[in-house]
Amino acid sequence: MTWNFDITTAPRETLTKRHGKTTTGKSITYDASEYTPLIVATKCGKVIRSYWIEKEQRWAGLAKGEQPVAWMPWPVHPNAVSDLGLNIVTKQSEVAA
Q1: Burial of 51 from C-beta contacts in 10 A (0-12 / 13-18 / 19+)
Q2: Which of 66, 73, 70 is nearest to 11 (CA)?
Q3: Could you read off the pLDDT of 49-83 as tens digits, one per residue?
Q4: Can you tell me the distance from the alpha carbon of 34 to that of 74, in angstroms, rounded to the nearest whole number?
């Protein structure tokens, strides 16, 4: 993996439709936030795990208005399996953002 210095290309929080049931059994559809974990480098020399928080317009672990200087995707284990029992990653090119 290599550092990407174009912060505008970093994955951001997305909203997805989810379906569920209330405690009374009523079916509902709601928006759920999905975060893409990243490795970010800060201007003070730290490397941390982070993600974009849309509601607050900032990166997790950084102050509002502070931008990482670089980012890279969070690594995925080569044998990772989804909740459905399917392999998540089959080749390295699928890991790169």
Answers
A1: buried
A2: 73
A3: 999 998 899 999 999 999 999 999 998 877 776 55
A4: 15
In this structure, are residues 89 and 76 in contact, taking their beta carbons and an 8 Å threshold? yes
Task: For residue 9, give the 3-state DSSP assignment.
Answer: helix
DSSP class per residue in 14-72 = EEEEEEEE-TT--EEEEEEEE---EEEE-TTS-EEEE-EETTTTEETTS-TT---SEEE
Report the predicted TM-score, pTM, of the whole model to 2 decimal places. Answer: 0.67
What's the token pair of residue 22? 């209330």
C-alpha closest to that of 37 among 65, 87, 72, 78: 72
